[in-house]
Amino acid sequence: MTDPQDTTSDRRPGGRTARVRAQVLDAVRAELAESGHEGLTMEGVATRAGVHRATVYRRWRDVAGLLVDVIDAAGEVDWQPPDTGSLRGDLTALNQEIQESLVVRPSLPLALMAASFQSEQAARAQTRLWADRYAQCEILVERAVDRGELPEDTDARSLLIAATAPLYHELVLLRAEPDAQLPKRAAEAAALAAAAGAFAGRNEESP
């Protein structure tokens, strides 16, 4: 069932509609990166995009609608998880991508995280995006199991969270300076724990 408060549409526009959407979403990203959620306005987005503000209001209705569509658009990108031939290599490469997205200034991912605390609709959209990304990355664990690197009953989601969480803890919560070794160190720690069975059997129901 469609959420009546959801301002986005399931259809994927083409032609002029697609161009307008691209212009507007590019403008939203730029406004967010420069001014954060607090500075995001329908008028500012319309001006930056070179689109009449009536068009923006008609399609997205409000700032929450713009945020949801920007987050949904991120999920439309044809992104593929790393495939280096080993679990440690895959997790390290994944962490390096995450770190790069968080340390660039201004950082759009950080701006979207902040915005999600101000908008329930954006928070739901971001939860969907994160869930999809973790689901995509489960292939890293499946390949590692096939290679004999991990126990067969390893819980992929728990392992992926353990491997990536240090990046968000250091860079988002503590606002620490980027550490070039952190992606590899966090990946290796999670891979070692997983190989020892730390994440085995997590999908089984408790007795």
Explain this structure.
This is Transcriptional regulator, TetR family. Residues 18-78 form the HTH tetR-type domain. Residues 41-60 bind DNA. By secondary structure, the chain is mainly α. The chain folds into two domains: 15-75, Arc Repressor Mutant, subunit A; 79-195, Orthogonal Bundle (Tetracycline Repressor, domain 2), CATH 1.10.357. The protein is built from nine helices and no strands. The chain has helices at residues 15-35, 42-49, 53-60, 63-76, 87-103, 108-116, 120-146, 156-173, 182-195. Helix 2 packs across helix 3 (53-60), helix 5 packs antiparallel against helix 9 (182-195) and helix 7 packs across helix 8 (156-173). It is elongated. It starts with 14 loop residues before the first helix and ends in a 12-residue tail after the last helix. The model is unreliable at 1-13 (pLDDT under 50).
